[in-house]
Specification:
The longest helix is centred in the middle third of the chain and has 35 residues, at 159-193. The protein has helices at residues 105-119, 127-155, 159-193, 200-215, 219-226, 235-242, 251-260, 264-288, 305-310, 328-339, and strands spanning 14-18, 24-32, 36-41, 53-61, 64-78, 83-89, 294-299, 319-324. The radius of gyration is 25 Å and the shape is globular. The chain is an alpha+beta fold and 340 residues long. Strands 1-2-3-6-5-4 form a 6-stranded antiparallel beta barrel. The protein has a two-stranded parallel sheet with strand order 7-8. It folds into 3 domains: 14-116, Thrombin, subunit H (Beta Barrel), CATH 2.40.10; 126-262, no CATH class; 270-339, Rossmann fold (3-Layer(aba) Sandwich). The termini are far apart. The chain contains 10 helices and 8 strands.
Length: 340
């Protein structure tokens, strides 16, 4: 683990944030580093989930705000009395308090020394890891630059022809591009697996700085990282997995989006949707043979892609289907899809 930055006992230390349900949480920090915070939540009704995004995340030490941004829940331990939560932090530290009188030069010098100390921690990022990230970054930058040249030509044509031309370019580039992207990302994943747990927060921060400005242009990667509903695997993420992958504001974004939507976890989820639809058809047919209508409850339905596909089949008339999800936005989206 990283060296602890434990608040003193006589300091007023506090964590304030808003969870995915819009509820404000108050907690006590028990461990704080540059890249993560561990805190205790005593409210038994403060429900948190792994990978949940905590918005308006603020950390106060000695009544002074030191962090204001967002955090992502990375670990949870329920002691029965209180909840211990570990969350990863972005680069939203308030390193210099501009409200302090700047005439105190010792304060500014102290703040700068702290900045240098934190920056030197990048020396702990493994050289092999840096090399793999640099190779991936370099390939992505060159691929983006090459595609931008093609895009300039496409955009000089009439707008009615642009879409067809973009699709043609993407189809031609994808076949050689996907294996290369896969190779670079596999090397990255292998390097990431070799990082010691104590150094993982530092390496995560390094990757965010080097790669996020490039890869988050893809709608799927942006959605999975930002988690606008506050948790992983929301209805729109799953819907993206099932629809045409050519989404994004540029050729590069569309190709990158297509790559991410063809990684093994996403392909496995699409296979799961096909499997569920097949099982539903089999069960409806079985019940129909007895002269009854099948009753189906889809719990945690998400976008209910398998149900959407099922409703396109005549056999769906032999079933009564109920959808249940804890998120109202999800249910509204599904209802709108069915009405279309």
């Amino acid at each position: 683990m990283e060296s602890k930055k434990q608040p003193k006992a006589d300091e007023e230390s506090l964590v304030l944030c808003v969870n995915s349900e819009g509820l404000e949480l108050r907690a006590t920090p028990i461990r704080l580093t540059r890249h993560l915070v561990v805190f205790e939540v005593y409210n038994p009704y403060s429900i948190l989930q792994l990978s949940e995004v905590l918005q308006e995340f603020q950390i106060f030490i000695n009544h002074r705000p030191v962090y204001s941004g967002r955090a992502v829940v990375s670990n949870l331990v329920n002691t029965g009395i209180f909840l211990v939560c570990e969350a990863s932090l972005d680069d939203a530290w308030l390193d210099v308090d501009l409200t302090r009188p700047m005439k105190a030069s010792s304060i500014l010098r102290s703040e700068f020394n702290h900045f240098i100390s934190e920056y030197k921690k990048h020396d702990l990022v493994m050289d092999d890891f840096k090399l793999v990230v640099a190779d991936l970054q370099g390939f992505l930058i060159e691929l983006r630059r090459w595609l931008e040249q093609l895009e300039f030509v496409v955009r000089s044509n009439p707008s009615r022809d642009r879409h067809d031309q973009e699709v043609e370019i993407i189809n031609q580039v994808l076949e050689p591009a996907l294996p290369m992207l896969g190779d670079y990302f596999m090397r990255f994943e292998a390097a990431a697996e070799s990082v010691k747990q104590s150094l993982q927060p530092l390496h995560r921060s390094y990757v965010k700085r080097q790669l996020h400005p490039i890869v988050l242009c893809a709608p799927f990667s942006w959605r999975t990282y930002t988690k606008p509903l506050g948790y992983a695997g929301d209805y729109e993420m799953v819907a993206m997995m099932a629809r045409a992958p050519y989404e994004g504001s540029s050729l590069f974004a569309k190709i990158l989006n297509t790559f991410f939507l063809n990684t093994p976890p996403v392909v496995a989820h699409r296979n799961r949707i096909d499997y569920l639809k097949t099982k539903l058809v089999i069960e409806i047919e079985r019940v129909a043979k007895t002269g009854r209508r099948a009753r189906i409850l889809n719990l945690g339905c998400g976008p209910a892609v398998e149900i959407q596909q099922l409703l396109e089949m005549e056999i769906a008339d032999q079933a009564e289907i109920e959808l249940l999800d804890f998120n109202e936005e999800t249910l509204r989206s599904v209802q709108q899809k069915f009405e279309e």
